[in-house]
Amino acid sequence: MPYIVHGRLHSKMGTGWRALSDFDKAIEIDPMSALAYYQRALHYMGGKNDDLARRDIAKAVAIDPKYVVFLKNEGFEDYLPKDNSPPAGEAK
Which fold has domain 2-79? Predict the structure, then answer.
């Protein structure tokens, strides 16, 4: 969790490469952290990297399906997987 918090702080401070590094580290430590994937997706969205954002959103939803409701409420419905399938390269 500390890496997610650090990543959010770096995002707000405008040091995006450090934010990405922190989110990557959080995922390395806990690859089942839907929150880490979600935060990294937000970072990618801010950088207009929609393909990577969609990949991370799909991973977050695969880990924790409750993120679907949250993402719809936040207006990120366009980033949700269309067929509820796991991200490319992931097993069902």
Answer: 1.25.40
Return the H-helix or E-strand segment holding 21. helix 16-29
pLDDT at 92 exceeding the cut of 70 = no
Instruction: State how far the Cα of 33 lies from the Cα of 26, in Å rounded to an integer.
Output: 8
User: Tokens in use for 51?
Assistant: 């393909």
Tell me: the pLDDT tens digits for 17-73?
899 999 999 999 999 999 999 999 989 988 788 899 999 999 999 999 888 887 887
With 0-12 CB in 10 A as exposed, 13-18 as middle and 19+ as buried, what is 45?
middle
Q: Where does residue 14 fall: left (phi above 0), alpha (psi -120 to 50 degrees), or beta otherwise? A: left
Whether the CB-CB separation of 88 and 55 falls below 8 Å is answered with yes
